[in-house]
Each structure stands twice: as structure tokens, then as C-alpha cells.
Amino acid sequence: AATELIFELSQPGRRCHRLPACDVPPESPEPDLPERYRAAAPPPLPEVGEVDLVRHYVNLSTRNMSIDTHFYPLGSCTMKYNPKRHERWAALSGFAALHPYQDEESVQGILRLLYELQEFLGEISGLPAVSLQPAAGAQGELTALLIAAAYFRDQGQTHRRKVLIPDSAHGTNPASATLAGFETVTVKSTPQGLVDLTDLRSKLGPDVAVFMITNPNTLGLFERQIRTITDWLHEAGALVYLDGANMNAILGITRPGDFGADMQHYNVHKTFTGPHGGGGPGSGPVAVRDFLAPYLPVPVVVREGERYRLDYHRPKSIGKMHTFYGNVGILLRGYCYIRTLGPDGLKQVSEQAVLNANYLRARVAQVLEVPHPGPCMHEFVASARKLLREKKVRAMDLAKRLLDFGIHAPTVYFPLVVPEALMIEPTETESKATLDAFADTLARIVQEDPDFLRAAPHTTPISRPDEVQAVKQPILRWQPSGASSSSPPAPAAPAAETPQVVPAAS
Amino acid sequence: AATELIFELSQPGRRCHRLPACDVPPESPEPDLPERYRAAAPPPLPEVGEVDLVRHYVNLSTRNMSIDTHFYPLGSCTMKYNPKRHERWAALSGFAALHPYQDEESVQGILRLLYELQEFLGEISGLPAVSLQPAAGAQGELTALLIAAAYFRDQGQTHRRKVLIPDSAHGTNPASATLAGFETVTVKSTPQGLVDLTDLRSKLGPDVAVFMITNPNTLGLFERQIRTITDWLHEAGALVYLDGANMNAILGITRPGDFGADMQHYNVHKTFTGPHGGGGPGSGPVAVRDFLAPYLPVPVVVREGERYRLDYHRPKSIGKMHTFYGNVGILLRGYCYIRTLGPDGLKQVSEQAVLNANYLRARVAQVLEVPHPGPCMHEFVASARKLLREKKVRAMDLAKRLLDFGIHAPTVYFPLVVPEALMIEPTETESKATLDAFADTLARIVQEDPDFLRAAPHTTPISRPDEVQAVKQPILRWQPSGASSSSPPAPAAPAAETPQVVPAAS
Amino acid sequence: MSYLLNTAEEQQAMLAYLGVPSVEELFVAVPPEVRLRRPLHLPPALTELELHRQVEELAQQNASAAQYPCFLGGGAYDHFIPAVVDAIASRSEYYTAYTPYQAEASQGTLQVIFEYQTLMCQLTGLGVANASLYEAGSGVAEAVLMALGVTGRQDGEVLVAETVHPEYRRVLGTYLANLPCSLRVLPAPEGFLDPDDLQAALSDRTAAVVVQSPNFFGHLEEVADLAAAVHRVGGVCIAVFDPISLGLLRRPGDCGVDIAVAEGQGLGIPLGYGGPYLGILACRDEPAYLRRLPGRLVGQTTDRHGQRCWVLTLQTREQHIRREKATSNICTNQGLMALRASVYLTALGPQGLRETAELCLRKAHYAARRLADVAGAELRFRRPFFKEFTLRWPGPTDALPQQLRQRGFLAALPLGRWFPSLADCFSLAVTEKRTRAEIDALADALAHCRPPSRP
Amino acid sequence: MSYLLNTAEEQQAMLAYLGVPSVEELFVAVPPEVRLRRPLHLPPALTELELHRQVEELAQQNASAAQYPCFLGGGAYDHFIPAVVDAIASRSEYYTAYTPYQAEASQGTLQVIFEYQTLMCQLTGLGVANASLYEAGSGVAEAVLMALGVTGRQDGEVLVAETVHPEYRRVLGTYLANLPCSLRVLPAPEGFLDPDDLQAALSDRTAAVVVQSPNFFGHLEEVADLAAAVHRVGGVCIAVFDPISLGLLRRPGDCGVDIAVAEGQGLGIPLGYGGPYLGILACRDEPAYLRRLPGRLVGQTTDRHGQRCWVLTLQTREQHIRREKATSNICTNQGLMALRASVYLTALGPQGLRETAELCLRKAHYAARRLADVAGAELRFRRPFFKEFTLRWPGPTDALPQQLRQRGFLAALPLGRWFPSLADCFSLAVTEKRTRAEIDALADALAHCRPPSRP
């Protein structure tokens, strides 16, 4: 019954929410709404009672794994515990019921909070100028690239059309670069999983605008040559952008500004534990060096004595990325997190995240190949290549089988540079006991019958959905007529070969 | 893992909640707390992290059936939908953060709400004097009986020592009567499930203080002779007490005060949909005739002009049943419910509850014996007697098997006057579709293999716990030493024969 | 109406199936002469939006402890509630379930209660705890009823210290009104029960002695000495405790108490204008006690697959089986409140409970020093106290709460309504939530409340 | 620290297993010269109780729509949020899960999104909706990027009505800054886009036309006529709509719109000082559109047992597979906000949505009549409007919001910051929450704000 769609519960005439009678006098002398604008009937939404609605959505919720119910070592996503206190605070009406166009005098509390958060993020990254506006990491990337474009335009360097991106980068990097109007150039990785300096050198030139680097990178490795890299870029007149997806490894340990980045984004929903919400909302503030500050989106929160205000008067600004000021509700949670942890606590977060990852890496290395030398930072990538060769068991099969043990699957088939990749990020909020249980389970699973593994999971509500069918005959909405959809066949883009599951950068 | 006890997750030194540093100067010149009062160590509570705690209790919660997830036709318990708006309102700090000893001027809002609720409950029952103090139905019963005792004492009729109780009554009735210092006398039921008037007549005498009647009774039947019964009692100088457990059937239809009751309790958590909370908190206000008002517990909320106050000056009062004013949080939900439904809505509640019950009764009667003639009121009792005779399948087996279909079991083996009883109360907040699904499922189940039924449920996290073992070797707490408990053997009272599952009156 | 599901069409279909023309026909058993022939006199139905407005207005007509620092005590305390407690208690699988009769459908609630029972044993140092009672006042009454049974002194005497919360004493009196035993209050003019005074009152008729520590005035009683004295005459010692205090104080079980009772409100339960609260009851792990324990119990067992699981057990004590012979008429527990207390204690852990108690102790003592410095005020008693203390005030105390509220505080519980001899006294409670700044400001406020015409 | 799990002993055990003496050793890859050798300059850690106090103080330094009747609009509206929406959205299985890559572990989120997509199709009358975007402003930009691809007019012209929210236009400008297309704003001096003016601006270079109805001033545009004109030159018509208005108004799909975009905040999402909100995007069910749809999509399929189920699908449009060739860089959706909108629309149903829209319409028109009666005020435009309208005021409007707040209202959005020619104008929005009494009181308050020295 939980799998019935809400539309299938609809009964004409059934109702849940009711509205008060109208308390203003009727329209006169002419109708308020000319007939030509009026729909004959309201939209054909479902008609259900309150108990139907509640049972439907409550039961549906239990068909998810989540941090609150399971270990969720989804690499690159930093699925750490989401504190309940944040939910209580974010719900305070003094925040939740603020209209974005209230006069500034009436929102001094939230402006102060946002101002302080700007300061915190500037300090943590070593990049002092911050915009909280981007609504997600990918939008943060785009914002930074638009800032770079504006900067070079301002500098008369419109010939800088290229953005260099390592082959291990998140897909958002090249996509954002394209969207910002740049051409992308891929830089190779070494067998050790780091940027291939020779390849980088060969691609550096006067047409390069930005190097987008993820550090620690998506293999969980810190770029040992980071200073060399950033020095080269700066010598070439280019800017260095840090993809901040992996900030959880380096809080208080090292700062992007100190290792040569000029711009970075944060994922507040990762590093500072905004709840992931089944896919969002996220929040992707950007931090930049002072010389790039004029290009930040408007408004920026500024302080004048004891008052705070929104500064829109920034003539070189790229403009706006968001109608209002960003995902304030998520920013608020990030603020509370930073204030809860403090400087020592944040450093301990990274230390523990790295310790957990290395411990789990060492345990997993007893079972699966871990292709890159350690120590790792906050995550690591294992490979099921050998299992595939020997038993035709794929990374995906292991991932699915883990679900049977109440463990969410790691990220699989990413980064693309590792065959049969399993990308594992335990985070600092998991205990040794949980890590041991994961490793023990994995060790047990790899011994299991290959056919059994290829049919896994065996205990979940569904198992191995037909993704090819979903693409070939897309059904993207429920329709009253019955089973088959009028949706057209899928677009011609290549489909069948592509990996089924890949990570979100942002 | 969900079945691990929280104690088994404990790790010495692990912590969740932390306290601020002390901001007052240290004690001086002598210590605040003499050594002889101090414990050497704090209690050996579990030591867990916040994510452990949250996962534990969130996962545990999903091992319950509940109204929010399943149809829950538990007879006599009125498991209707609990509106979400009530939870929002009860959490308002203007209610939730009121200290019971605040000065009256500072609590005019809640006093007004409680005053109005007293008025509402008086009007609904036709018994105008109300105390909101009893914390549950059973305490409401006791309160009413203590009022009766005080009244008769006041009247010089201390010879009235007996309380008459029908054999179909909830167990709380005789237990409350005993606790109030009365002797109990059982009155038989007729084969039609109503009070046996001849038996009643024979037991009526000058020593009778109170007749406790449940109407509609626990078979879901309205006592057609209710006026005769109450007239007889009044002629005999006794009082009539109505067990209000079944008020959901008669809101706005008939009033206990109008059919001759002198006192009644309400179950706010049933009739007015306070959430049942896994067993409580409930709320059991009593309503009485004006001549009994002086005996109500103190305080009563009174109105003086536009102000409300707590009236403690009631010299004939029985005293107090609760340290403060009762379960205000549940009363508040009841108030909101009555204001949401209004007079017409409450009547429709009963009409729909009765319609649902009769419809389901008719459908179930195709499958199981329904021993008493209809129409029923808001619930009905079916019997699996025939199945037991023919297939050795018991009511309990059907109840357990229903769980496999996502339907909470009805109440079984109650009332005691029906062999192999299944007591079914659908409530008004369930749809015809849900009732049909129940009836269809039941029809399917009775055809199933008896061995299979006797082993049911088959899909729940556990199945058929050994209740005899639980009684013979009671383990009533976890102990660090390991499996076996130091708890002593059980008390000698008869155990094995008693029904496993029985309903709550209150 | 908002929560009714069936449409007019469905109702017609159901009536058609039943073969009756209208719902009215289903009420034939209700005699016409008792039918209500008019609408109930109740206010008209309101939509969620309308009622939301009205309910918010009612809430705003109260001055809450969320706005005003609260120094009120007397059995209800403004302790901090960590957000995890609310988060877990708002899981609707807990709050919309009922009594866990069907173990297979109720392992969540059952395990929570089993854990609660264990936590209460850990907290009190006693061997058995029930699944909870309504609140402390009726909890004391239930404990006394147990003691009457355990001692067999059904027509004996119950002694209660005057320092026990006066409303607990009153509830106890109400419960015992029609029973053969007698009830005697032991005076405590110095704010604690002197063991010698108890000794003098004990006899072989003594069924139970009820004490409270920290007591109503906040003072610590000599519980171990009192319990030993009670035991010497074969009576049962019942002690009311403050669960928060056990972060620091010796546990009732370790002091020889037979039955420990407490108000569990401080364990993560909102003040809520007095309820719903949580009645904690724990006792010796002895058959005579267990047999007479009121309320529900959850026990551990195994299912047909051998899995560990939990069930309601020892139900033969209870009303639904024993009817008039039951140990009590109770047939619910405060399930959701027991869940809150469990989450609270688990969140705090031993160290957190200790630190909370330490903060209460130190802040209360700081407050006592500061307030006793206010001209005219003085500590009424010289006894060790935990988080609550009593001040004498030069003049009547009835108007003080309102005066202090006007200066921004919920504070001062005048004691005259229960103790005429203490009409010039009031008590204050200080929890870990109170800051030094709030305490200092309260002292200033109190200084302004001084009646002008007194020395 | 609060959320770290491992004790010192466990950390030692882990280090021992790794054979390293300290955590420091694990950071060897970080070159010493870039290590931070000092603590971060951040405020010290606070416990929950301490931070609770500070955060509550910050919240209280704001004047919220929970205290003041809110008549502000401009893309965010104070609609009523039924309690069921909060109850469902607070299920932590929803809010602590992430992107549903593993379908077997994510059917809850996947089905919710599939239902959301369907609801958006039902609402808009279009055939496809994505799993949601960040909010309306960037949603408009994404729609325009789609249109550039669909028409193949990558270096063509994008026309935007001046009546489209100025911040949506500004976001669009930011997104398009480095792309070959050009962007032109079509003036609308009378508060709506005259179809003749559009006609004159259209050409075979026109890739997309963006209109909004109800528009930024609250007025209804002639969407069907505009769409028809756009189609005649082979362009794509993008319309921004107000989801609440569709309880009464013709749906974008029924007016011939190709891509409909909306801010979904009104659908059960708190005002929250501007975010997180919900970007709704729906479009024609045609391959050219589907291929270029940004963001996630959930599709129905069957599992290996033949059960109906849901998966993320058509991922070959997305960045994680197509990288620089992706249709957009988006790799999240606003999952939790889409859930809120779904619950909201389901709770309202067709009838509830209609009644809500009707109340907004009637109350807004009542308010317009009342406020235009205030001496000196007048309606600036004479166009049909839905729930928002523009008043001309005899004098500068900058101080009005503060003046009205001091009289108890959040009201008046001065338009001068976006439209210098409307420096003497402000807009007001009226939702179903506003009462006649509040509207009347606002009119009184406005009368008192009149600048003294103007006629």
C-alpha cells in the first residue's frame, strides 16, 4: 500500500485542508477577475483525507535509508550526523517567518548572523571575501567562474577562454565552466592519483583563465605539490579555483587561501552539516581573495558600527545568482554548527574524519584493492576490479548487497579514473564499532556466491530496477488513463553503457 | 541492530549532551553539599553519542504499528486520526512553558481555555459540573467513585457500600470501586448483550451506592432500557456512573445526563483524539450533576467577569487527584478538536463512526459470527468460536495474521462474555476503502491453513513471544552481567490460562 | 468536516449495502425520549487557519518561561530540554500508537519501556521499576497502597513528613479517604524530618513512612537514618526524590529506601502548566513488592524463532485480568513521557547528569547567598539544600510573584497557602538554565519589591 | 565535542591498528609550509544551552511575520502552512537522506519526487516537470538556456518583459553574461506587456520570450496571445506563474506556454528570509525539450520482481555523465522543498487551491479599494490583478515600510529601487491569511504615514 501513488488514493469530493469563509464584502460593481483569465476548473490535483495523506507520506519515508537510520558512507557527500538542535533553531519564527523584503532595521538579528557567517567562512578558507548567495555547490562553482570571467574582462584579458580541470574532478566542474562561457581542458592524473604536473605544464598558457582543483581530490588524496601548482598558475596569470567539496578533511589544518587558491566554494550541507534533504536544499557560498571581492554577487552583508545592512552598491558585481540572498535556512544551520564546534572542535572534526577514513581504509584494504597509496584524507577509493575479473562481481553488486545489511552503499563508479570504484567516506560522526561492522560485512560479502551478489539486494522493498526500460520508455508522471504513458521516447544520447550510479559533487 | 538495547551501545567516556561551564563563583567558605549526601559516582547510565541515540530511537520507532502508519481497529480504544495541528499548537511556548505555580494573572489564556473546555464537556454530557483533573479514564472512574463516597458520607448514608457492575464492563470499573473502598457486585448480561434487568433488580437495595454502566457497552450496543435502569437506581437512592469510554458513538446524539447518568468520565485521548502515546498520557475528566459539584477535586477553573481563576475554596471537595491540574497538554488537544468540529461536526463524528462500524460489521458477519443483533454503535464484537471448534484456529491467530497485512489487530478476548472475541472499532476517520480491505483480508485469512495461522505473524520483526517464560522468569531490566537476570521468580498468581491480550478501558 | 473520510457517495454506498435509508436508522436503539433534539451549545466549527489564530492568541495571553527567567519550583522545574528529546518524541510511530498489547506490532514501544525501566533502576539503585505512573502525587498514593499490602498492615498507620510536597500529601489523603488505614503528618518545624521525631512516631502499626529528599523546601533529609528506623518496626520506607539531584546525591536504593517515587518532569518534559508529567516508581526486587506493583511492566522473553523480544508481562496484577482484586486500577502508563525521560537520561549520560546537578547546586547556592543579601530577606532554614531554598521576607508574600513578573521574572512561590506559619516565606528554585546575570537581576528586582513601611 | 563519536581509547586503538603514533601523522601529505599553525579565529565552542540562548536572542532581534501581519510580496508570500506539511517534512528519513542514487534504498524520496513531477504537470497543464530547481530566478535562467538549445538560436535574442520580477531578470542577465546570445528588456509602462509591443520586438532571431503572470506588479498578462505571437516566429514562450493563482487562472500549458517556471515558496514553504525556496520548471512533453531539461528526473520502471518502482532517469543529460556537454551544471534538486510543496498541494486538493486563490483575489481587491481610499493614495495601474497591486503615494516611499512596521505591519514594497519612474509607488500583497480587520487597520496606519507637507 505504501507504493500506491497519492493519485491512486484520490476520491472525488474527499478533502483535507479547508479554508475559512471570506470575510470581506463581495466584489462590486464589476467582478475582480475578468472571465477570460479564469480556468473552467481547478487543476486535477488528488483529493484525499488528512489520515490518507499522513499515512502515505509517513509510510513512504520509511522506504528510505537516511543518516538517522543507517550508516551512509556515500563518498564525496559527507553524510555526517545532522544535529536536531539545528532543526529547532531554524524553525524559530524569528527566522522562519522573515520576509526577504523587510526593512533592514527589522532584520538585524539575521543580518548579524549572516555577516558573522561570512566572516567565519572567510577565516576558515583564508579567502576573506564571501558571498552566501549560491544555492548549492554547483551554483557556487558557476558563481566563482563568472567572477573570474568578470575579473579578466575588467583586466582586458578576454583571451583567457580556457579552464583546466583534472580528469578526477566532479562533473559539475566542466559543466559549470561551459555554462560560464569557457572552454574546458582536461588535465591527467598520475598513477598515484594526483595531478600530472607534466600534463598540467603542457596545457598552461596565456589563454588559461582558471584551474579548477579539488583538494583533497576525489580520491581522498591531498595534492602534495599544491604550492607548485598554484604558483605555476599564478605565474601564468591564471586564477586557481578550489572545489570545496572536501573541506571536511582540512578544517583548521590548512586553508585554501594559504595553499594558493584564489576562489573556492563551500558545501554548507556537507562540511557544516545542513541536512541533505533527499537531494537538497544545499548551500554553496563562495570565498575569494580581496582583489576579487568587487565581483561578488549583490548584496553582501556589511557592518556599519553596530548595524548590519545589505550592500547592493557594488558596480563591478557580476549581478545576482539567486532572487534573494541564498538558502538562508541552510546557512543558519551552518552558522550554528561552527559556533557549536569552535576552532578546536572544527579541527577535531577533520582529524577524526581523517582518522576514521584511514582506519576504514586499512580494514577495507584487507578485502579489496585500494589502488592509491595512503594515508588518505577523509575518504578513499577502493576498486572491485579483481572481483570483476575473477568472479564477474562488480562494484555495484557489492554496493547493492551492503543494503541488505542496513548499510547504505558507498558511491560507485566515481571517480572515473578508477575502474570499479567504491568511494567511501565514513565521516567523523561514526564510531569505530560502525566502521568495524562495515568492514566485517564487506569481508563477508566478497566471499558470497557471485550469482547471489548479482541478484542483491534481497531484503529491500525493491531490487534492481530496470533502468534501461526507464530510459527507453520514460514515464515521468502518473496519468489517470492507466499504465502506459504518452511520454515520448528518450532523447538519442548514449545511455546503456553509462554507469548507473555516480556521486553528487554539490 | 535496532534490537540492541541502548545499554549495549554504551562506551565509557562517550558523550552526547554537554553542559556549560559554571558561571557563578565557587562555593565558600564551606562546601554547598556535605559529603555524607554525595554519591561516589553518578548513576551508571548509558554513554552514547548523539547519532547513536538518534538512530536507536528512530529505528525503534519503526518497529511499531501506529495510527500514522496503519489501520488500527483496536476495539474500545477509539484509535482515530490524531491531527497534526494539535501537536503544533500544544508545542507553543505560551502553553508548553507555563509553570503550574505562576500567578493567575499570568496564565489567563490557558485558564480561559480550560474553563471553556469544562463548559464544553458539561454541555456534551448534560452533566454541567466538570473536573479536568483526572489523568486517565481509570483515574476519572476513581474520582467519580470518591465523589460518590463523599456524597453519601455527607448524606449520612455510609451504609451504601456496594457498587454494581455489569459483567461486560472494563476491568478498571471493579478495580476502581475497590480502590475507592466499595464492594463490587457483578450484574449479568442477557444473551443479547445488554444488562439483565432481572438480575439488576435482584441486586438493587439500600446498600447500593453506585451502578457503573458503560453505554454504549463494550459490545458496542446501546442499552435500550437505559431510562428504566437509571430510574430504578435513582428510586433506590443510588447514583448512576457512566463509563465514558464509548462517547465516540453518541456525541450530539444523546447525553448521559439526559438518559439518567449522574456522573461520567471522558477519555480525552479517545473521544477527542489526544494521541495515545504508546500507552499514555491520557486524560479522564469527570462531569457530574450540580448536586455533586461541591465534591469535585480542587481546583476548579471559575470565571469572574472577564478573569479566570483557580477555585480552591471548596470545603466539601474530595481533595486532589493530581498534584497540579491534570494533563493540560492533552486537554488542550481535546479543546482544539471540539473547536475544530463544532456542534455539527461532533454529531457527524458519531454518525460516521456508527456508520463505519455497522458497515464493517455487516461485511465481517459474512466471515465470522457476530453474536449480538445489530445495528451496533461505534464498535462490534465478532467471535471466532466456530473456527476454534472446526479448525482449532483462535481469535488470537486471526489477530496475529492480520498484522502480516499491515492491519493492527482488533482487541481480542474482551469482553469476557463473548468467547473468542474480536472487538473491532474502525472509528470515523477511516475510509470505506480501508474497511473493505480489512474485510477482504479477514475473508482471505479464515480460509488459510490452520497451522500457518497458528504460526502467524510471518512478516513482523518478531513472532509469538513466549509470554509464559516472561512470567516464569521475569526479566524486567537489562543488567550488565549478561543474559540471566537476578530478578526473583514471579508472584504466585495464576498466569498461564489468562488471555494474552486484553483492552485498555482508559 | 476535517477528519471524516467518506464522501457522500461512499456513505450512500455503505447505507445501500446495509439496506437502510439513512444513518438515523442505525440509532434505533437510542430511545427517542433520550435523543438530543437540538444542536449542542458549542461554538461553531473553525478551520485550521481560524483556530490557529485563536489558539495563538490564547497562548499569547500567558507569560511563559520561554520569555521570563523562571525561578519557580515546588515540584515542577525549568530544566533545559535538549532538542533530541523533542525530535524523538515527535516520531508519530510512538505518539500515535497505543498500549503494546500486540507484541509483534509494538516492539518499538515495548523496548522503549524496558529501557525506561532499566534506566529507572540505574537511577534509583533499586531492582524493579514499573512502566510509569501519571505523576508524583498519585505515585506516592500508589506506593502507599503497595506498602499497605506488603506489610499486611491494611488498617495500620501511614506516616508522612510535613516536608513532603503538600499536594502529594493531599492526593494521598484523597486516595486513602475510604480505606481503613490512618494517615498522620509528622511536623517538621525546622524544614526537615528529625529522625528522633520519626522514631517517636513509629510503632508496630506503622505500615509506611513517606519522606521526600530534597524535600518541598529543597532540603536534604537523613534518608538512610530514617529508612533504618522504619525498617526496625517492620514498615516500608517510601522516599520521593528529584531525579536530577541523583547526579550528585546518594541513590534511594543505596540509602535503604524500599519504594522510591519521583516526579519525572525534570527529565525532558515541558512544564506544560502542570501536566502531562511522569510518575516514577521503583522498588525492591522482592516478590512481595513485585506482586503488588501497580501499573504496567514490560519483560524480556524470546519469540518462536528464539529472538530476544519484549512483552507486557505479569499482567495478573492488573485490573483487566484481576478486576476487583487488582493491585491498582491503573491501565495506562505515561508512555510518551517515559520515552522523553529515557531520551533525556541517555542524552545526558552519567557525566551530563552529574554536571547538571552540580550546576543546579552551585547556582542555587549562589542565588541563596545573593538573595539573602537583599535587605530584609533571609534564609528561613539552616539546612543543606539542593536546588531550592526558602526565604523569609519582611511582609506578606502574596503579591511578590506578580511584582517580580512585572520586573521580568517568574519567581517566588509563597508558602503561606500550605503553611500558615510560613506566611512570610517563599521558595525559589534554580536550575542549570539560570545564569549569574539572571540571578543578580532577580536580586535587584527583589530589592525593589520591598514593602516600603517595614523595617 | 558534541558530534564526535570515538573516545580517546577508541582513537588509540585505531591508531594502533594503523601503526601510527598520532593523528598528525595522517596529514603528512599536507606540506608543512601550508599548514595552519594557529587556531582559527572563530568564537569558542558553545554548548547547546548556551547557543540556544544566543540564537534565540538573534531571532528576537528580527520582527517576523508571525508577530506582524505581512502584506509584503514581490516573489515571496505569507501563505498559511498547514501543520501536516511541517509534520511530514520533519520526518528525518526524508531530510537526512541524500540524492536517491541507490534506488533500493531510496524509494521514499524517489516516489515523492515522481509524485511532485506529476503534481507540477497537473498544476501547469504541461507534460513534463523536473525534480525541481533552486528557486525561480535561476529557474528562469535555466529555462532560457533550454530555449536557446531547443530553438538552436544560441546567438539569438532573448526578450524579457519589464514586468518580470526585476531580480529574476538580473539573475538571467548574470547567467547569460558570457554567452553569445543577447538579452533585451521589453518596456511595459502600463504595468503589462502589450502584445503589440511584443509583436514589434519579435524576429527570427528571437530564441525566447519571458513573461510573468501575475506579473511583478500583480497584473495578469495576455499570456495566450503572447505565446501565440512567439510561436509565429519560432521562439519559445517562457512564462513565470504563481502556483497559488492556478486555483483560479488558466494554466500555462492551456495558454500555449512552452516552459513554465515558478517560485514554489507559496506552496507550504516558510518565508525564511528568502530561502531555501523551490524552483518549479515544467515544459512541453517533446523530445527537443526533454533532452535539454536541466536537473534531475525520476522515472517509473519495474524491478527484477516486476514491481513498479522509481529511479533517477535520463541521466545522460546531466553533468556527472556528460560533463562539459551536460544540459546544465545542476546536480541537486530542492528535494525537501519539493516534498513540502507536494504535501501542501495534496492537503489542499483542487477545491482547497481554488478557495485559497479566491480568498487571495477577493481580499486583495478589498484591500486595493480600502487603501486607494486613503487620502493621497491611488492605484497606479488599471489592470486586472490577482493578489498583489501597486499604489501611488504622494511622496517618497523609502521610509514607509519602517513607519508601517512601527504601526504593526510588515507592508509596502517600494518600487523605486528597480523602477526609478515608480519612485512614488509601492506594492502590497494580500494572502488568504489576512483578515478584513487587518486590512482595515493597515488602511488606518497608512493614513497616518502621510507625509505632512504634501498636498
UniProtKB/TrEMBL annotation, chains C, D:
GO terms for biological process: glycine decarboxylation via glycine cleavage system; nucleoside metabolic process. Residues 2-445 form the Glycine cleavage system P-protein N-terminal domain. It catalyses: N(6)-[(R)-lipoyl]-L-lysyl-[glycine-cleavage complex H protein] + glycine + H(+) = N(6)-[(R)-S(8)-aminomethyldihydrolipoyl]-L-lysyl-[glycine-cleavage complex H protein] + CO2. GO terms for molecular function: glycine dehydrogenase (decarboxylating) activity. Its EC number is 1.4.4.2. Belongs to the GcvP family. N-terminal subunit subfamily. The glycine cleavage system catalyzes the degradation of glycine. The P protein binds the alpha-amino group of glycine through its pyridoxal phosphate cofactor; CO(2) is released and the remaining methylamine moiety is then transferred to the lipoamide cofactor of the H protein. This is Probable glycine dehydrogenase (decarboxylating) subunit 1. The lineage of its organism: Bacteria, Pseudomonadati, Planctomycetota, Planctomycetia, Gemmatales. The gene is gcvPA.
